[in-house]
Amino acid sequence: MNFYNRDFLKLLDYSEQEILYLIQLAMEFKKKKKMGKKHDYLKGKNVVLLFEKDSTRTRCAFEVGAMDLGMGVTYLGPTGSQMGKKESIKDTARVLSRMYDGIEYRGFDQAIVEELAKYSSVPVWNGLTNEFHPTQMLADIMTMYENFGSVKGRKLVFLGDARNNVGNSLMVICSKLGIDFCCCAPSELFPNSELVSQCRKFAEAQGSKILLTEDVHEGLKGASVVYTDVWVSMGEDDSLWKERIKLLTPYRVTSELMSLANEDAIFLHCLPSFHDINTKIGKEIHDKFGITEMEVTDEVFESDQSKVFDEAENRLHTIKAVMYATMKK
């Protein structure tokens, strides 16, 4: 498989074999990291990180991953670039690709990262857009492999706003890899019907299924993975909290809900998570609406079934795999 100079924008662009190759490569990098083996295979190269949305895991994973591979890194935060203000996306791509060997973008519309890739002469990687979050998905599936040994035929259930980038991307990667995917949410928060149809074709070819249901008992039956995300995504208006709390409280991941899944089921979350009130937003929501936990209870988050910090660590190794595969001749 030839990944050289290829963009990583959405998993719809990648085959099952290509996705599995990247995950296997990530596992090899993880072993090397744990054993203290140097793997600075891209020494002398440089990458730039364009962030229109702040981040912890994505930024750290790209920075540490690039440094582990021997590269230099420039971070341009929400106020660090003129892109879209004084300089067009097209011109930004042409300037940066003359100076850097790879460009990461984290921000808003998918159209932005697609335009960057169109005019860049070096690979462009999607660190998150409103529509898709492909690097997160590789880490999620890698975590499944570490816990179950295989993923095909397993069932992953997403509870929450399944129209967001995580819900969309989970449905895509599950359908590509033969994992049964269930969106368990109020019907008004079901994913885009066009994307559902597209993924159902992939799933049919793999012998897997896509289920959209409002019923938590139907959704969680036979689940190996229970996954959730924050109820209001970054960039959405705070006025949505009242409506989302009302809609999604029945889908909060509790111990009772986890008991409906398989006995060996694991809990995943892309993070950050509002499982207590030890954050500014968590405290504000508590003071306004009187709740101490949102999408997941603290009991589940801190349980042995929770693999969220393994999952977070795996962002580093999978992002490293994407950068290496697309930059190494």
Number of strands: 9
SS-based class: alpha/beta
Share of residues in helices: 40-55%
Report the uncertain regions.
Answer: none
Per DSSP, what share of the residues sits in E-state strands of 2 or more residues? 5-15%
Report, as a whole number of angstroms, the end-to-end distance.
12 Å
Largest sheet strand order:
7-6-5-8-9
Tell me the radius of gyration. 19 Å
Shape: globular
The number of distinct helices, counting runs of at least 4 residues, comes to 13
Secondary structure topology:
Blueprint: H1 16-35, E1 46-51, H2 57-68, E2 72-76, H3 89-99, E3 102-106, H4 110-119, E4 124-128, H5 134-148, E5 155-159, H6 165-177, E6 180-184, H7 193-206, E7 210-213, H8 216-220, E8 225-228, H9 241-248, H10 255-258, E9 266-269, H11 280-289, H12 298-301, H13 308-327
Parallel strand pairs: 1-2, 1-3, 3-4, 5-6, 5-8, 6-7, 8-9
Could you explain the architecture of this structure?
- The chain is α/β, with parallel strands linked by helices and 329 residues long.
- It contains 13 helices and nine strands.
- It has a five-stranded parallel sheet.
- Helix 1 crosses helix 5 (134-148), helix 1 packs across helix 13 (308-327) and helix 5 (134-148) crosses helix 13 (308-327).
- It is globular and about 55 Å long.
